[in-house]
């Protein structure tokens, strides 16, 4: 899935994982409800806009190296 999202292990995430909602964040969250990664829960909710019920993120991707933690 990381390859589909344009993530390359060993390279930083876009903006090192930060977004407009969480400017100091340095990680992305992986959501099991859709299997996608987003910088924050607000970004996830904006992207899916009611397509499915949101579940808590269960995994994290490091903003510095794009490795799952």
Description:
The chain has one domain (14-62). The protein has one helix at residues 41-48, and strands at 27-31, 36-38, 59-62. The protein has one helix and three strands, in the order ββαβ. It is α+β, with helices and mostly antiparallel strands. The chain has a three-stranded antiparallel beta sheet with strand order 2-1-3, with helices on one face. It starts with 26 loop residues before the first strand and ends in a 7-residue tail after the last strand. It is globular, with a radius of gyration of 11 Å. Keywords: Metal-binding, Zinc, Zinc-finger. GO terms for molecular function: zinc ion binding. InterPro entries: Znf_CHY (IPR008913), Znf_CHY_sf (IPR037274). Residues 12-69 form the CHY-type domain. This is CHY-type domain-containing protein.
């Amino acid at each position: 899935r990381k390859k589909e999202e344009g993530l390359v292990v060993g390279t930083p995430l876009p903006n090192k994982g930060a977004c407009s909602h969480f400017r100091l964040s340095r990680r992305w969250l992986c959501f099991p409800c859709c299997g996608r990664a987003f910088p924050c829960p607000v970004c996830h909710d904006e992207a899916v806009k009611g397509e499915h019920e949101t579940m808590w993120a269960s995994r994290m991707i490091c903003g510095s190296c794009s490795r799952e933690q």
